[in-house]
Amino acid sequence: MLIWLQGGPGASSQFGAFTEVSPIRIENGKAKLFHSAWNIFGHLLFIDQPLNVGFSYKPGDRQGTEQVSSAHQAADHLLNFLDNFYKTWPRLREAPLYITG
Amino acid sequence: MIINETWRATNRVTLEGISIGDGWTDPMNQVNFYDSFLWSVGIVDSKFRDVCTWFQTNAMINMYNGNYKNATSYFDFLTNNDTTPETYFGNISMFNFRNYDGLDESFVKILQDNKASLGAKVDYIPGNDAVYTSFAEVALALRSIKVLIYNGQDDVVVNTAGVLQYLNSLNWEGTARWKRTKKEIWTIHG
To answer: B118 and A52: CB-CB below 8 Å?
Structure first.
């Protein structure tokens, strides 16, 4: 499994999903299929992080205005997400994990 | 890495490795190469190269002093098409100097227009530039897992010279061996 984390730092990973490494990308507003995308290596997981970028938000802050200001805080949130992710998809625990970006 | 240890203990997930492509990992080292890079590929003349030297030096000094906001404005002048008069760099893309188009972010409108069907509760926000990275942690990662570093040779913002500079200055016991290792060429799209 490959997790894609956008650089920036602090940019939403949907940028990578729609313009860089995924099989379906958006070019000039149109969807385009790529046959040599990274999904040939494994499952691709794009995460909107740090909190409140992309479509991510914190309950109680539905406007998504609170800013994460350190990589450590962002990492805590990410770890929490992954914990929940693997609880929801326990079989994926067996897959070797690569963090890319 | 701490993350890996925690996972192993609680979730038994094996983190095999990480990869960093064109990473803005160590700005204080990486900001120092715009003058030589832009000059050597013929984007700026020697006069504007000296202007770049002045801006990048100021960016570095401000970073060193913790004045990130000031550092960002100097950095933006060098790398951001929105704030730099286009005549300085011939309006090239700072992400690929062989192109003139900037980033294609047309996907954002599609996401925004389909917010409801995507189940999104908030507007799409491209990024948060207030997150600071920690250079020293790359060395920590190198000690415990496989790390793949790759860099686009036409990328001006995160240029290869700056990436090599930070890799060479890492406090990492594998540095000498890494310097001796033959680097691979990775070609895509032909």
So the answer is: no
Is B107 a domain residue? Answer: no
Cα distance between residue A1 and residue A94, in whole Å: 10
Report yes or no on B115 lying in a domain.
Answer: no
pLDDT digits (tens, 9 = 90+) for B116-149: 999 998 899 888 876 665 566 777 777 888 999 9
- In this structure, what token pair is assigned to residue B160? 């290869």
Q: Which domain holds residue B37?
A: 2-99+131-180
Residues B5-60: tens digit of each pLDDT: 655 556 578 899 999 999 988 889 999 999 999 999 999 999 999 999 999 999 99
**ipTM score assigned to the predicted complex:** 0.88
User: What is the C-alpha to C-alpha distance for residues A75 and A83, in angstroms, rounded to an integer?
Assistant: 12
B50 is a domain residue: yes
| Subunit contact A69:B132, Cβ cutoff 8 A | yes
- B70-79 CB contacts, 8 Å cutoff, 24+ apart: B71/B27, B72/B129, B75/B27, B75/B31, B78/B31, B78/B34, B78/B52, B79/B34, B79/B156, B79/B157
Could you give the CA distance from residue A30 to residue B115 in angstroms, rounded to a whole number?
A: 17
Contact between A18 and A31 under an 8 Å Cβ cutoff? The reply is no
The closest CB to that of A97, out of B16, B110, B115, belongs to B16
What is d(CA A34, CA A32) in angstroms, rounded to the nearest whole number?
7
User: Does the global pTM surpass 0.95?
Assistant: no
Domain count for chain B, please give it: 1
Q: Tell me the C-alpha distance between B161 and B165, whole Å.
A: 6
CA distance B180 to B22: 22
Return the beta strands (E) in chain A as ranges: 2-4, 24-27, 30-33, 44-46, 97-100
Question: Which are the contacts of B177, defined by CB distance < 8 A and separation ≥ 6?
Answer: none
- Nearest by CB to residue B18, choosing from A53, A86, A99, is A99
* Nearest-10 Cα torsion for B117, A13, B133, B15: 110
